[in-house]
C-alpha cells in the first residue's frame, strides 16, 4: 500500500491525481480494508491518503456524542502515557499529547465554532468531519501505540507562519531550523546583491527553508531547492504551489550540488539542514524519529559530518564572491569542527565565520561568507 | 437659542421671516472679516448666540485656538486681524467649555436641579422627557469625569501653545492627537446637550405660537433623545483611554493545591464563556496545567471592541467556597484565584520601545540534543526582558515562530502596562499585574455550599444562580461595578 503510493509520487508530480485508473483501484483497496461505508466522492478519493487532514473536504458526518466518545477515549489513552515516553527516549508526555489531540480536532472538525467536545456528551447534532470516526480511532492509536509522529498523522507541520504538508518518507521540519530563515533575513536586509541573488536550499525535504526564504525574497530573488528523493520533491512541489511560489522556487532532483553544475560561482547564498546525526546514535533516537522518519535525512555518517563537509567543499566553488551560507549542525562539537575545517582545510575561501545558537542555547548553526 | 431656532426654521421653510430680530442677531457675526471662517464652518450649524452670551477668554481651549489660529494665520500670510482670531476662538470655545443654555437661560444643570418629575416614556410630557435626558447628560458627564477632562484639555492646550512644541515632533504629534480625541469626545456630549436645549426652545416657541405640529415634532424628538441617552450612559462607562482595546486576561491559582487549581480553571472557563457571549475572539496564549487537575496559571487573549473596558472590572481575587471534589472527606474548602487584565494597545498608542538586545529568548522546556534528534510538537518559547525581568511565555501555537510572536505581543503589553502604571497613578487599580495583586484584595465571593450565591464585595451586587455566573453571565457584575466606581465620586463631575 505505502509502496504503491510512493511509487505514484515517484513517477510524477501532483498532476497524477487526474489519472483515474490507478487511483480508483487504490481507493477501493483502501476502502475495503479499512472502512466499507460510506464511499467518499470519487474525485476526492485519490487525494485521501496524501492530503493533509485539514485540506480534505468534510465528506463525513458524525454525531457530536460519538465524537465526544472518541475524544474521551483518546484523552484517556494520552493520559495513560504519563511520562513513560519521556523517561524512555525523551518522547512526548501526556500534556503534550493532549495538546496534539486538541490540534487533531482542530484539523478534523469542520465547524470550529461548535461547543467544545468535552461538553457535548449528549448532543446528537451531526457535524462535518474530514475523516471517518473509524479513521480517527485508528490514527490516534497509531500516534500512541506506534509512536507515529503527530505531523504524519495530520499530514502537516506548522513551521514559522507556514503550514507545510508532510508525509511518511519526508523529514518533518524542526522548530530549530526556522532560525535559518531569520539568519537569511538578517543578511539580505542591507545587502541588495544578496537580496536579489540566487539562493540554494540543499536537501530541501518538504521545502520548508526554500519556501521560508522564498516568501521573504518574493519577486526580488530566486531559490533553487534540491533533493535526492523524488517523494520529497513532490511534497515540496505541492507546498511551493500552495504558497504560490512557483515563479520563485525551482525544484531540482539530485544529490547535493549535482543538479547545480550550471551555477558554479553564481550563487548568492546556500542554506541547508543536511543529515548530521552520527550513525551510531541512530538506534537510540526517540521512537517517533527512529521508527518513522527517513534515515537518509538523518544519518550523517560515522561522525555525522559527511554531508556537512561535502557542503563546505561544494560551497567554495558554487558561491560567488561575497556569497553567504548557513548550515545547521548537531551542536557545539560539529560547529567547532566545521569552522576549523573552513579556516584551514578549505583553503582561504571563507570569511566572517560565525556560530549561532538555537533558542535552547545549543550551538546549532554555522554561517559565513565566501571571500 | 437663536441659532437653533434659525436652523429649525430654515428647515421648516420660511417661518423665520417672522422673527427679524433673531435673524439680525444671527447675521451679526457674519461680518466681512470672518467670511473665510464662515465658509469653513457654515453658520447654520454654529451656535453663534454663544458669541454674544458668553465670554470664553478664560477657557482653556480658547487659548489653544488663539495660538493655533495665529499660527495658521501667520503661516499662510492670510492675516485677517484680531477679530478673526477672537471670533474663531469663541466659536470653538463654545463647543466644549461653555455651558449651553436655552434662550431663557435654562441649562442642563438647572433642569436637573429643578427636579421635574420624570414620568413614564409613554406620558407625553416634555418636562419629563427633558428632565430624563438632562439627568442622563449629568450622569454621562460624571462618568466621563468632565471636570478632569476640562483640566486635562487645559493642560494639553498649554502644551500646544508652547512655541518650542514642534522641536520634538513625536511629542507634538502625541499632544495634538490626544487633544483632538479629547475634543471629539467632549464635542459629542456638548452637541447632545445643545440638542436638548434646542428642542426645549422649540417647544416653548411652538406653544407661544400655537403651532401644534412643531410642538409634537419636538416632543417626538425629545422622546427619541431620551431613548438614545440610555445607550449613551452605557457608552460613557467605557470612556477610559484604553477601554476600546482588546486585552489579555490572566488567572493564577492561589495556595491550596489541586482544589485551587481547579478553581482557577473554572474562573478561566467563566471568562472564555463570557467572551463567547460577547462575541469576542478568545485564544489561549499560555497555560500551565496543574499536576492532577486545573491550571496553575493561564493567559487568554480576548479580541474585540471594549474587551479591556469591560474586563478591567474583573481585576482582583476571586474566592470560592464549596465541598471539594478532591477531598475524600467531603470537607468544605475555600480557594482563591487571582485575575489580572492587560490592555493590548493598538496602533496609534505609544508603545514601550523594546531593544532586541535586551531580550533573552529561550526554548521553554528544552532537553536533549534537539534538532534532528527530536520530533516534538512542543515549541514553547519564553522571552525575558532583561532590564525589567518581565517574562512572557507562549506554548499554544503550533510553530515556534508563532509562539515567539505571541509571547512578544504579551511582553509588549506587559511593558506597556508597566509604563502606564508608572505614568498614570489615577488608573492604578486596573493596571495591576498578577504579581502586584495581594491575596487580600478580594473582589468577589462564589459560595456553592452551604448555600449558593455569588456576591461582589465591592458593589454588594449578588446573584443566586451560581451556574449562570460560572457559565459566563458576568455582565451584571461588570456593569454594576463600572457604574459604581464611576458614579460614586460627586467631585468628579
Automatic annotation (TrEMBL), chain A:
It holds the Pfam family MTS. InterPro entries: DNA_methylase_N6_adenine_CS, HemK-like, RF_glutamine_MTase_cyano, SAM-dependent_MTases_sf, Small_mtfrase_dom. CDD domains: AdoMet_MTases. Residues 195-277 form the Methyltransferase small domain. One of its GO terms (biological process) is methylation. Keywords: Methyltransferase, S-adenosyl-L-methionine, Transferase. This is Methyltransferase small domain-containing protein. One of its GO terms (molecular function) is protein methyltransferase activity.
From TrEMBL, chain B:
The keyword Metal-binding does not apply. Residues 29-39 have a biased composition (Low complexity). GO terms for cellular component: cytoplasm. Residues 204-314 form the Peptide chain release factor domain. Residues 27-49 are annotated as: Disordered. Gene3D superfamilies: 3.30.160.20, 3.30.70.1660, Release factor. SUPFAM superfamilies: Release factor (SSF75620). GO terms for molecular function: translation release factor activity, codon specific. HAMAP family: Rel_fac_2. PANTHER family: CLASS I PEPTIDE CHAIN RELEASE FACTOR (PTHR43116:SF3), PEPTIDE CHAIN RELEASE FACTOR 2 (PTHR43116). This is Peptide chain release factor domain-containing protein. It comes from Ficus carica (Common fig).
Amino acid at each position: 500500500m505505502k509502496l504503491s503510493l510512493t511509487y505514484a509520487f515517484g513517477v510524477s508530480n501532483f498532476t497524477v491525481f487526474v489519472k483515474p485508473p490507478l487511483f480508483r483501484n487504490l481507493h477501493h483497496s483502501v476502502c475495503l480494508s479499512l472502512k466499507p461505508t460510506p464511499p467518499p466522492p470519487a474525485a476526492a478519493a485519490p487525494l485521501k491518503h496524501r492530503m493533509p487532514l485539514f485540506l480534505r473536504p468534510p465528506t463525513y458526518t458524525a454525531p457530536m456524542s460519538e465524537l465526544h466518545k472518541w475524544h474521551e477515549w483518546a484523552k484517556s489513552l494520552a493520559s495513560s502515557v504519563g511520562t513513560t515516553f519521556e523517561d524512555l527516549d525523551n518522547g512526548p508526555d501526556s500534556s503534550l499529547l493532549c495538546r496534539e489531540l486538541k490540534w487533531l480536532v482542530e484539523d478534523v472538525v469542520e465547524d470550529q465554532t461548535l461547543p467544545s467536545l468535552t461538553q457535548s456528551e449528549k448532543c446528537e447534532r451531526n457535524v462535518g468531519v474530514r475523516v471517518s470516526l473509524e479513521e480517527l480511532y485508528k490514527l490516534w492509536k497509531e500516534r500512541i501505540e506506534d509512536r507515529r509522529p503527530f505531523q504524519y498523522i495530520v499530514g502537516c507541520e506548522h513551521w514559522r507562519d507556514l503550514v507545510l504538508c508532510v508525509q511518511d518518507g519526508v523529514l518533518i521540519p524542526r522548530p530549530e531550523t526556522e532560525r535559518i530563515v531569520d539568519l537569511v533575513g538578517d543578511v539580505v536586509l542591507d545587502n541588495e546583491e544578496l537580496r536579489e541573488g540566487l539562493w540554494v536550499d540543499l536537501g530541501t525535504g518538504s521545502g520548508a527553508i526554500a519556501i521560508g526564504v522564498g516568501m521573504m525574497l518574493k519577486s526580488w530573488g530566486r531559490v533553487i531547492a534540491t533533493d535526492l528523493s523524488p517523494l520529497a520533491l513532490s511534497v515540496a512541489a505541492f507546498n511551493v504551489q500552495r504558497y504560490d511560489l512557483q515563479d520563485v522556487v525551482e525544484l531540482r532532483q539530485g544529490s547535493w550540488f549535482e543538479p547545480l553544475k550550471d551555477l558554479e560561482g553564481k550563487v548568492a547564498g546556500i542554506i541547508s539542514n543536511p543529515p548530521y546525526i552520527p550513525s551510531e546514535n541512530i538506534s537510540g533516537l526517540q521512537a517517533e524519529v527512529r521508527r518513522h522518519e527517513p534515515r537518509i535525512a538523518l544519518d550523517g555518517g560515522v561522525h555525522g559530518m559527511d554531508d556537512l563537509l561535502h557542503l563546505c567543499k561544494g560551497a567554495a566553488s558554487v558561491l560567488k564572491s561575497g556569497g553567504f551560507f548557513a548550515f545547521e549542525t548537531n551542536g557545539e562539537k560539529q560547529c567547532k569542527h566545521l569552522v576549523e575545517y573552513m579556516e584551514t582545510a578549505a583553503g582561504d575561501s571563507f570569511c566572517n565565520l560565525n556560530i549561532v545558537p538555537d533558542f535552547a542555547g545549543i550551538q546549532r548553526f554555522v554561517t559565513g561568507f565566501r571571500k | 437659542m437663536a441659532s437653533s431656532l434659525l436652523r429649525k426654521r430654515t428647515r421648516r421653510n420660511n417661518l423665520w421671516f417672522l422673527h427679524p430680530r433673531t435673524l439680525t442677531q444671527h447675521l451679526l457675526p457674519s461680518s466681512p472679516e470672518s467670511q473665510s471662517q464662515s465658509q469653513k464652518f457654515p453658520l447654520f450649524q454654529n451656535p453663534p448666540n454663544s458669541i454674544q452670551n458668553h465670554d470664553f477668554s478664560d477657557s482653556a481651549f480658547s487659548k489653544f485656538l488663539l495660538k493655533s489660529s495665529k499660527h495658521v494665520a501667520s503661516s499662510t500670510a492670510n492675516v485677517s486681524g484680531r477679530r478673526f482670531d477672537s471670533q474663531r476662538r469663541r466659536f470653538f470655545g463654545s463647543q466644549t467649555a461653555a455651558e449651553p443654555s436655552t434662550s431663557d437661560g435654562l441649562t442642563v444643570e438647572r433642569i436637573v436641579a429643578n427636579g421635574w418629575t420624570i414620568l413614564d416614556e409613554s406620558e407625553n410630557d416634555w418636562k419629563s422627557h427633558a428632565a430624563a435626558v438632562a439627568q442622563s447628560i449629568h450622569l454621562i458627564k460624571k462618568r466621563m469625569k468632565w471636570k478632569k477632562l476640562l483640566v486635562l484639555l487645559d493642560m494639553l492646550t498649554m502644551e500646544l501653545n508652547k512655541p518650542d512644541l514642534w522641536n520634538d515632533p513625536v511629542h507634538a504629534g502625541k499632544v495634538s492627537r490626544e487633544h483632538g480625541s479629547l475634543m471629539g469626545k467632549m464635542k459629542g456630549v456638548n452637541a447632545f446637550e445643545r440638542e436638548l436645549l434646542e428642542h426645549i426652545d422649540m417647544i416653548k416657541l411652538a406653544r407661544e405660537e400655537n403651532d401644534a405640529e412643531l410642538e409634537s415634532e419636538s416632543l417626538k424628538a425629545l422622546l427619541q433623545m431620551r431613548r438614545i441617552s440610555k445607550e449613551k450612559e452605557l457608552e460613557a462607562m467605557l470612556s477610559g483611554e484604553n477601554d476600546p482595546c482588546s486585552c489579555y486576561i490572566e488567572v493564577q491559582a492561589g495556595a491550596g493545591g489541586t482544589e485551587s487549581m481547579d478553581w482557577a480553571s473554572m474562573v478561566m472557563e467563566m471568562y472564555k464563556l463570557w467572551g463567547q457571549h460577547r462575541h469576542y475572539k478568545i485564544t489561549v496564549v499560555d497555560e500551565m496545567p496543574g499536576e492532577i487537575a486545573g491550571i496553575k496559571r493561564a493567559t487568554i487573549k480576548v479580541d474585540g471592541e471594549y474587551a479591556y473596558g469591560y474586563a478591567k472590572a474583573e481585576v482582583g481575587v476571586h474566592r470560592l467556597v464549596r465541598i471539594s471534589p478532591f477531598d475524600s472527606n467531603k470537607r468544605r474548602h475555600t480557594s482563591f484565584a487571582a485575575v489580572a487584565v492587560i490592555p493590548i494597545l493598538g496602533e496609534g498608542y505609544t508603545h514601550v520601545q523594546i531593544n532586541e538586545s535586551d531580550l533573552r529568548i529561550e526554548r521553554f522546556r528544552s532537553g536533549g540534543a534537539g534538532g534532528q534528534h527530536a520530533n516534538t510538537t512542543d515549541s514553547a518559547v519564553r522571552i525575558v526582558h532583561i532590564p525589567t525581568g518581565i517574562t512572557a511565555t507562549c506554548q499554544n501555537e503550533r510553530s515556534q515562530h508563532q509562539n515567539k510572536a505571541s509571547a512578544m505581543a504579551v511582553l509588549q503589553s506587559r511593558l506597556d502596562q508597566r509604563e502606564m502604571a508608572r505614568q498614570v497613578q489615577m488608573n492604578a487599580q486596573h493596571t495591576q499585574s498578577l504579581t502586584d495583586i495581594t491575596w487580600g484584595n478580594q473582589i468577589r465571593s462564589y459560595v456553592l455550599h452551604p448555600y449558593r450565591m455569588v456576591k461582589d464585595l465591592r458593589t454588594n451586587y449578588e446573584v443566586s444562580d451560581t451556574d449562570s455566573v460560572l457559565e459566563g453571565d458576568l455582565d451584571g457584575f461588570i456593569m454594576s461595578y463600572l457604574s459604581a466606581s464611576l458614579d460614586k465620586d460627586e467631585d468628579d463631575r
